[in-house]
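for the writeup, i need someone to sanity check this before i put it in the appendix. the sequnce is what the collaborator sent (i think, or maybe the updated version? ugh). structure was predicted straight from it, no edits. if anything looks off just tell me and ill rerun, i have time this weekend
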Amino acid sequence: MTESDSMAFSERDSEPAPVEQSADRAERILTRMQINDRQEAYALLDQKSKRGGVLVTLVIVGWWLFIGLQGDDVGGESVFFGLGFSSVAITVMVLSAVSALLSELSKDRGDIYASALSGGMMIFAVLYVAEPLVGSLLVDGFLSVGEGFSRSLRLAALWGGMTYGANLLVNALLVNWLLTFMDAHGLDYIGDQNADDGAPEAVVE
């Protein structure tokens, strides 16, 4: 065996196995969500999925009632891609949901690209939310101040509600993944806290 082959095998052996990477990710989820046993995980899954589903549904219904049916797309087109108000509202909801998804996943995977993309989407969402009010104050003939305030307020409600709701749903998916992973690999939770860092551990039964 040549020296290069030996180095290749050595590097391959030093790489963490997929199961070990998943176990590390499971421990990070346990620590971040402060889950100590299986019952807590099931309760958290039910709580977050239910609240997230309710909130996202309310946001969509709110968009339909207070924006979709209002028909107030006249005037105040966005300087970002020339979108009308209804399209801006949908864009804000999509950006908020995807940003929350990428943000939560990057916390457990340590993915810098997902985190950076999430930050960029958040900036665009904030710009869309603030644009009607700022434009009504600074640009003549853009919108009245009252209309600009009304639009920004509705967009802010959509942004906040969708961000929080998507955050809850993503966390519910992570807890579901955690339960599936631990069932598949015979892992269990330790109710006692780790003496070193006070965090729950995942161990093989």
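Residues 4-16, 190-199 have pLDDT under 50 and may be disordered. Strands lie at 187-189, 202-204.
thx in advance!!
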